[in-house]
Recover the amino acids of this structure.
């Protein structure tokens, strides 16, 4: 298939090749299995680390242009912690240096990378895209493919529970478009795991169902899930957090769908990854039985790849130290080993495991909803009534989902941003939903989609008030203007 431009008329390539995306991402051939050098029967336990990297897009260029917050940091070094800009930039490119060095020295490293669409665009904007070109080494070069797994995510780092349902799949596809345009279709075909921004899993039945449905329609096989954001089907804490699970999603119509989930364990995420705690935890574990098959358990963990002193300063030495220690104890191919998520799942399934045998889970507090509703009587009205009753009788009950920590809600208190966000989304869909599919190739559509998705960036809600809310208001204003002048494309 044709190579794609990653920038079109100044806008990132986030739409227009939906049919090509489908043909590429629905390929179910093994990704890592043909190339893995790990001998599963000789592995005692596994750990997997992922690095989440993101910078928001803001209307803060010299003439109000959309730029990366990273660029703003470089241009305003005396504000806040903006002096960290060079360090952040180094963090965005350093894995493209670390992995080749470790491989050249006989190590068998593994790392999963989660780059938001905002960041990918921002890295194209600064230094002529130098960092992106460096990253191509570990995204495209066959010599390094077994060691690095790229994870998909929401293009504009929107937290799923507060993302308008019609936009969930648009975010997922926008990221796939953008990634394929930068790194190529073959690289996209290898992206089978998904990393939800802020590890925020929706627990409203309809939102969760649409999220999982969109993931599967976009070719994803598994997603990373925070341990305390899920429960067993009878409402208990997970007993086997070091085994893959099957996340069950049932909507208010009684329809059910599921997807494999790797469980990210609780804790101070950045410090755990920065100090390679997953490796040391894996050293305390032994093989377990799953569906009648003996396999190594997996410790899964994700943390910011650049944020905080631990990741900036301590992670490189801890990562190298762990890799060399593993090299000296089994060569990184037996004993305690690093693996990536898709590699692990492909290996255990080749050994005889099947997703149907994985322990099941659902989002936190959903058992309270389903206790009130018989499956044969599941209707939107019944679910809505159950949720309202639970809010009245359980003061901690909500359907906002669960994030990095249970005490943070990404919904309550931010209505001043969420309301315009929903309004812009509704305006966008009123304009485009009844147009032919080819409208996604039009420049006007792509620009309108961009503003719609940009407004949903979590950073604008995280900060709540002040400069970040002002950025959101300006994006809303531009989005409204763009959508209102959208040329309604009609097939001739």
């Amino acid at each position: 298939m044709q190579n794609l431009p990653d920038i079109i008329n100044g806008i990132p390539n986030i739409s227009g090749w939906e049919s090509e995306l489908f043909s590429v991402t629905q390929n179910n051939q093994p990704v890592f299995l043909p190339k893995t050098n790990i001998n599963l029967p000789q592995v005692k336990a596994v750990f997997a680390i992922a690095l989440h990297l993101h910078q928001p897009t803001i209307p803060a260029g010299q003439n109000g242009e959309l730029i990366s917050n990273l660029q703003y940091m470089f241009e305003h070094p005396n504000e806040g912690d903006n002096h960290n800009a060079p360090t952040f930039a180094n963090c965005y490119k350093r894995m493209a240096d670390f992995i080749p060095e470790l491989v050249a020295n006989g190590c068998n490293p593994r790392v999963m990378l989660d780059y938001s669409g905002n960041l990918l665009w921002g890295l194209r904007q600064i230094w002529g895209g130098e960092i992106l070109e460096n990253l191509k080494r570990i995204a495209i070069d066959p010599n390094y493919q077994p060691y690095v797994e790229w994870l998909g995510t929401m293009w504009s780092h929107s937290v799923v529970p507060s993302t308008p349902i019609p936009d969930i799949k648009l975010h997922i596809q926008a990221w796939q478009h953008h990634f394929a345009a930068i790194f190529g279709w073959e690289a996209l075909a290898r992206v089978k795991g998904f990393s939800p921004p802020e590890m925020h899993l929706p627990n409203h039945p309809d939102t969760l169902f649409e999220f999982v449905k969109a993931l599967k329609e976009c070719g994803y096989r598994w997603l990373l899930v925070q341990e305390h954001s899920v429960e067993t089907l009878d409402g208990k804490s997970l007993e086997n957090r070091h085994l893959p699970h099957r996340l069950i999603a049932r909507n208010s119509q009684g329809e059910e769908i599921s997807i494999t989930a790797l469980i990210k364990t609780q804790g101070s995420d950045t410090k755990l990854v920065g100090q390679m705690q997953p490796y040391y935890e894996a050293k305390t574990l032994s093989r377990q039985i799953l569906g009648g098959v003996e396999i190594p358990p997996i410790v899964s963990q994700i943390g910011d790849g650049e944020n905080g002193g631990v990741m900036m300063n301590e992670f490189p030495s801890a990562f190298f130290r762990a890799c060399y220690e593993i090299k000296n104890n089994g060569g990184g191919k037996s004993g305690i080993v690093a693996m990536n998520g898709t590699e692990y799942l492909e290996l255990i399934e080749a050994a005889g495991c099947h997703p149907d045998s994985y322990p099941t889970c659902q989002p936190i507090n959903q058992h309270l909803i389903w206790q009130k509703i018989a499956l044969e009587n599941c209707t939107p009205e019944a679910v809505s009534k159950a949720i309202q009753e639970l809010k009245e009788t359980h003061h901690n009950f909500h359907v906002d989902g669960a994030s990095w920590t249970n005490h943070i809600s990404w919904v309550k208190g931010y209505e001043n941003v969420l309301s315009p966000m929903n309004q812009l989304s509704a305006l966008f869909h009123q304009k485009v939903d009844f147009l032919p599919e080819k409208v996604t190739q039009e420049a006007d559509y792509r620009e309108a989609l961009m503003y719609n998705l940009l407004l949903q960036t979590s950073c604008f809600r995280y900060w709540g008030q002040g400069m970040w809310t002002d950025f959101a208001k300006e994006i809303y204003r531009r989005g409204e203007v763009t959508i209102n002048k959208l040329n309604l494309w009609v097939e001739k």
Observations:
- The first strand starts at residue 7 and ends at 8.
